[in-house]
Design brief:
Layout: E1 4-9, E2 15-21, E3 30-35, H1 42-46, H2 58-64, E4 68-72, H3 99-114, E5 119-125, H4 127-138, E6 147-151, H5 161-168, E7 177-181, H6 182-188, H7 198-208, E8 213-215, E9 218-222, H8 224-233, E10 248-253, H9 261-270, E11 278-283, H10 296-314
Parallel strand pairs: 3-4, 3-5, 5-6, 6-10, 10-11
Antiparallel strand pairs: 1-2, 2-4, 7-9, 8-9
Length: about 325
């Protein structure tokens, strides 16, 4: 079962896609808002449409645990409105969606969730951890959440920005956006033959069939996430983690070459959450895309168990 598309509107009038998978167990009084990373969107990351197999859907797993699963497409991603800069040539503008703008999109989604659910958990992945952290550092008083989960976080990474752009095969000039091409991405991910990997094909389809799609072979990735990453690579964190005071879980996979241990532990140490309300977890054998890997069920279970602990404290 695929999630249902709904719409929330940001304070500036931008329409944002909010995907929803209703709880199938429990009382449905809690919701989890999932926030994607830099070159993906919510369906691709959290509910890829793999025919006959929903084990890759974190939203479905969340719903089975009795919590309504929500997933936001930040503007410029998925089915949310595209910033006008994405309709110009890429070199005509600077990156249009940096963490402060994306955090306002999160605020709109949290506000909508708060109107319906007693408990709201917030979860970010990769760049999503930056913008969730920024949201909590700057907007949490207006629309609070009950917990924060930072999966595969990038906070103050030990690698250079040139290493990032080289790995992505993009120019470091930070135009407004860049293109992702089917053949290049397939090769980068080690898929040797077109059509051989149902998960890869489902993720790709979720990208090109959204507002990011250019054609069947190409989609747009906006560069605000890269600009935020460049800032972090220079040692200047995107947000002040000490301003985050809600219960928090920091989780990375042991095989994650992007979210490295020293950076994730540094984030854990920097969080303003008191020591008795924050946790650090490593998932053995998982990489940066643990939700698409063989340890995905263990990932779902670890995060759900954390929500259980938070909710017991709330009650």
């Amino acid at each position: 079962m695929q999630p249902t598309p709904t719409t929330v509107t940001a304070a500036d009038g931008t329409d944002l896609r909010l995907w929803e998978q209703p709880a199938t167990g429990g009382d449905g009084g809690a919701a989890v808002l999932h926030v994607h990373g830099s070159i993906t969107n919510s369906r691709a990351l959290f509910a890829p449409p793999v025919e006959g197999d929903d084990s890759y859907s974190w939203l479905a797993a969340t719903a089975r645990e009795g919590r309504t699963a929500l997933a936001l497409d930040v503007r410029g991603y998925g089915d949310s409105d595209r910033p006008p800069e994405l309709d110009d040539p890429p070199e005509a503008n600077e990156p249009p969606v940096r963490a402060p703008t994306a955090a306002r999109d999160i605020a709109a989604a949290v506000d909508a969730a708060r109107a319906r659910f007693e408990t709201v958990h917030l979860l970010g992945v990769s760049w999503g951890t930056m913008i969730c952290g920024y949201y909590l550092a700057h907007h949490a008083d207006a629309a609070p959440v009950d917990s924060l989960t930072q999966v595969a976080p990038v906070h103050r990474p030990p690698w250079t920005f040139e290493e990032v752009t080289t790995a992505l095969g993009v120019d470091a000039g930070l135009d407004a956006y860049y293109h992702q091409h089917y053949e290049g991405v397939r090769e980068r991910q080690g898929v040797t033959e077109s059509g051989e990997d149902p998960l890869f094909e489902a993720v790709w389809r979720a990208q090109v069939e959204s507002n990011q799609g250019v054609d069947d072979e190409t989609y747009i990735a906006q560069s605000g996430s890269l600009a935020d990453t460049a800032m972090a690579c220079e040692g200047e964190t995107v947000y002040d983690a000490a301003a985050v005071g809600v219960p928090a879980l920091v989780l990375r996979g042991t095989d994650d070459a992007i979210s490295v241990r020293e950076d994730a532990l540094g984030l854990y140490d920097d969080l303003g959450t008191t020591a008795d309300r924050k946790e650090y977890t490593e998932l053995a054998g998982a990489d940066h895309y643990a939700m698409h890997g063989p340890r995905r069920q263990a990932l779902y279970a670890a995060v759900s168990a954390y929500y259980d602990r938070v909710e017991r404290e709330l009650n």
